[in-house]
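call fold(seq) -> tokens
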Amino acid sequence: MKNIFFLFLFSLFTQIVLAQSLTITNGTKEKTFNPDGFYEIILGEGPNRENLSCCESIQLIGRLSALSKDSLHMDLTKYTNRKFMDDFKIEDQVYSVDKTNYGNFAYSDIYSIKFYKSEKSIKRKGNLTGVGALLFFSGILTSANYFFISDSDSKKTALKSGVVQFGIGLTLISISKPKEYKFKGEDRVWRVK
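ret:
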């Protein structure tokens, strides 16, 4: 029993010591992420305001495993390459990745970072967005019934119900979207500290 306890303590100690947290800054603000979390990192130049289907990007999802002066390394769970050709979006997903080829990249290649507490959090936020969008549009449709119902009490009930659905849907969409820290663009950009 003592061996199991010491093994647990050793593994906990190595996770704490080996885990590295990522700190970013934009000159006035600073943000440090939990080393146990998951990151969604977009590499590339990002969308162009004049032509939203102009650029190639790579989406990486995984845990941060190492930091150096000019680059970082991730243990990836998902690697997606997106290209736009003649107004068609081509998306390639790689499910089995060679960490030496896919997990290393320079800070200068980062377009944006989103942080999630866990892998389950990514799925949960995606599900909340879907439910929120469904309630948002059903609220619009329910409110539109106001114009087709002849009874004044039913009109008020349909309008109130639609507004409540719309509001709940909008709230779910807004709370399910993680903050995106952009490293390139016209606004105040972030950089790794």
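The radius of gyration is 22 Å.
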